[in-house]
Amino acid sequence: MTTKLIRTILLFLLSVSFHGIVISNQLKRHYYKSEPRIVGGFPANRNQTTFVASLRLTIEEDFFEFGAGHKCGASLITENILITAAHCLFVYYNGPFDKELRDPCEWTVVLGAYNRYTKEETTVVRSIQGITAHVDYDDYTFENDIALLFLNESVPLSLGVIETVSLNDQAVELNTSCQANGWGRVEYGGILADDLQSVNISVIDIDICNSTDSYGGELFDGMLCVGDLEGGKDSCQEEIQTTTPDDDNGSISITFSLILIITLVFGLSLV
Predict the structure, then answer these.
(1) What sections of 140-213 are H helices per DSSP?
(2) In degrees to the nearest 10, what's the CA dihedral of 91, 70, 135, 170?
(3) What is the CATH class of 3-265?
(4) In sequence order, what are the residues at sequence separation of 6 or more whose Cβ sits closer than 8 angstroms to the Cβ of residue 236?
């Protein structure tokens, strides 16, 4: 990875800042609970989630078992760089302002695994040699909740097994179809999913989410509001991609580009 490319990625992130908030089905406000969830989802299509990685605490992987240390999702954007939510990478002591960024050696990244407990022939495990969290990440507002993970060794890319995802550089229109992927909880208070899950959601007008009977202006410039106004579908602490049909010689395929990282959720599917 050249210094020029790293600087380009960092400049892109600083200028376009990805954020996300997923709403509950009636847009009512609830106490924030930070736990990974994929509510109302379905088993992911392996061919469409080849860039999804599992970010794990190494000590829990070693002490318990492979898969037990999963904390957050991440997305592979180059052969040795991933993107994830900054809030996943800190140790919090006495509130959001009393925190410490975990050392890179505390983390393990797993790619090419569908079931988080199963190490397949295609599974690749890497250590992290560097972490760059957004310099303006705010624990209170969750603005700029984004970070880059630099692997100790490049990942061998393989079509249909492990691939990178492109970063979206276009404006995202209202009602754009999106898909969130992760190993989150499939129901409130439940256990983490064993198999990778997906949920289809859409971009919602931020004014709806910022209305007085929902989030009361807590979404800021640069944030997107995504979810399902009919309810029953939510996501937390996972990556979201746009889905775009491509007509190639009469056949329809789906391409993805990363548009945001889930960072803030109130009361997923509670009402």
Answers:
(1) 206-209
(2) -160
(3) mainly beta
(4) 22, 34, 35, 36, 37, 38, 184, 262, 265, 268
Question: Which contiguous run of DSSP H or E holds residue 61?
Answer: helix 58-63
* Backbone φ, ψ for residue 46 (5° rounding): -60, -35
3-state class (DSSP) for residue 36: coil
How many Å apart are CA 127 and CA 125, to the nearest integer? 7
4-48 pLDDT per residue, tens: 444 434 443 433 333 333 333 333 333 233 444 455 678 999 998
Q: Are 108 and 152 in contact (CB under 8 A)?
A: no
Pull the structure tokens for residue 15: 């200028």
What is the 3-class SS of 119-148, one letter each residue? Answer: CCCCCEEEEEEEEEECCCCCCCCCCCCCEE
Burial label, 113 (beta-carbon count in 10 A; 0-12, 13-18, 19+) = buried
d(CA 77, CA 10): 12
Nearest CA-CA partner of 35 in 67, 74, 71: 71
Share of the chain above pLDDT 90, in %: 37
Helix (H, G, I), strand (E, B) or coil at 16: helix
Which among 262, 242, 265, 266 has a CA at the least distance from the CA of 254? 242
Buried-state track 48-63, b at ≥16 Cβ within 10 A, e below 16? bbbbbbbbbbeebbee
**Do 55 and 74 meet the contact criterion of CB atoms below 8 Å apart?**
yes
13 within 8 A of 163, measured Cβ to Cβ: no
Any idea where the domains of the chain sit in the sequence?
Answer: 3-265
